[in-house]
């Protein structure tokens, strides 16, 4: 124990010595040093008017004593080497600091400046750099400014007194938390003066307008308010803002009826729109919710006979009758109608008045009421196909205005003409069997009949009743096939499905029982039915059948064993991918191609026959009027018209060459005998007739000369031509008359043509037509006919080819 105590004392002594050493070391470090930089106070006021440059301070460093004249001062930072430039400077030798222009504190609140003292010759720092901030003293040079100097706001006239929807915000950019930036907002003026508007301060920068009282849109629709913000600086500065309030109309005026009472007369059982219009007046702005009227029944329409609507344009109330009014029940009715606006009525003080109302007095005028059936809809149930003559229905009718005994009954609807009606009693009797499967029966097996009861009132009134006849089904239809023809792909399957149907309903229809319709051994060897029960059956071929058509008789029994004998036609064929008969498709396509080919062949044959006909008829001539001078060629190379000649006159004096002879020999009956001077008497009518004709289709019209008339015909495809001369028809008639008299033996009448002697004047000159002389020239002149264009050349070539193929001799 003594040892432990001794150890503790030694430790405490050691700690005490250590503490003394530490305190001594600290005293060694905290040696006071003397300040080396000295400067006078730097105080700058913003917007100082000067004059400039202006001395603002002087710098001093005690180390200049050691360097004497070998030092210089330097300044840097904001206003010197950093923006804004050119604000401060320093005298390098004396250390005097200058300001060169006014400073706006709101633009630059402070300046961070650094001072250095350097060795003039080496440029090295003599002492540490001195840096500090220059604070600019604020002055009250900025007034408070409204963020929105012009404010416009819409105010509903029914706005309760209190806050207006206008907030005023202003700021002052002078130094915060000073009198220069503290301001108040106040109201300078308002127009109109009522209601009283005030400014409520929310915080240092925001205020709001308030009012006491009520706005009236009819009295004042716009307010102009001027507010001012002024600070507390010296001198005090301020600014203003203008607030414009537009007062919007609201429902501050209730609608009022223009009339106090209306009178109306109506016939009973009348349903009509717009029987009465009720007008109101409202001082609020038209076409606004505070102006639009809402009409309602206060009294008198408990049974819902009437309806009220509002005309959106005129704001009138429209009264309509939507249910028939019975005179026997009600003769007079009084309606009380109220009106209010879509927007609730606003009253500045007090409670709103009750809605305005008006009375409508309605008188009901009695008319002839229609007869009323005891039941307007009657259901009757019976089996279809029952024997006619059955009484289906006898109506019961009442009429408050007429004698029931005078009512007559008529059929208004009986589409199938199955019933008749007794005009006195209305008894409905069937006249034909009713078929449930008739198209006049609906899907619910109901046949509808409408009857009418007409009274003898003025005017007559008609009541109606609908009789619905529910027809029960019987088994009156046999089963049959939906489709009597089927295709079996013999190269794929040996089975086809046949579907049956029965017009009757269950239990007189399917499912059906199918069986083969005969005891033929061949039939049973070729076909069987599997399945044979159901809505459809499978017809299976028991052996491979040659492709072709097969008729298979079937018997189909319904659930009541009523049998239907039918025959299904089965086509067995070779099918392709889509189960179409290939033979059918090939035949169809070949028939289609053959049909198209036949059509084209028929057209080509028709065109060929037409061309052959045109070419064959080229030798025929078309009659033309002799005096037609159009499209003619006139011979201008006749010199003198020929010599007077007493030789016998020929009607036709042809000149021929080898081509003529070939053509004459080929004509058969037109061959020229030696004594005929080249003209056969049987040939003269044919040739003379051709004066006014030309070949059909060759495109070459006849050409005539005038002295004497002559025609030239040239065939472009046959290669021959003729020229001939004709006298006029007048001379031709005289010549024929003279010839007839000579034949009769009277020669004196033709003495001018008797032999006559003349003095010999040399060799006799043969007097022929000058056509011979001009023939070659005419041939040259007609060469243009050989080139009439590609169309005529093509046609001519076709005709020549046809002539050569048929070996026609021209």
From TrEMBL:
* CDD domains reported in the protein's UniProt record: Cadherin_repeat
Q: Name one GO biological process term.
A: epiboly involved in gastrulation with mouth forming second
The listed locations are: Cell membrane; Cytoplasm
- DNA repair in keyword set: no
Give the range the annotation lists for the signal sequence.
1-18
Q: Which residues form the Cadherin domain?
A: 62-146, 147-257, 258-373, 384-481
* Keyword Metal-binding part of the UniProt annotation: yes
The entry's cellular-component GO terms read: adherens junction; catenin complex; cytoplasm
- Output the PANTHER family linked to this UniProt entry: CADHERIN-23 (PTHR24027), CADHERIN-LIKE PROTEIN 26 (PTHR24027:SF78)
For this entry, the protein name equals: Cadherin 26
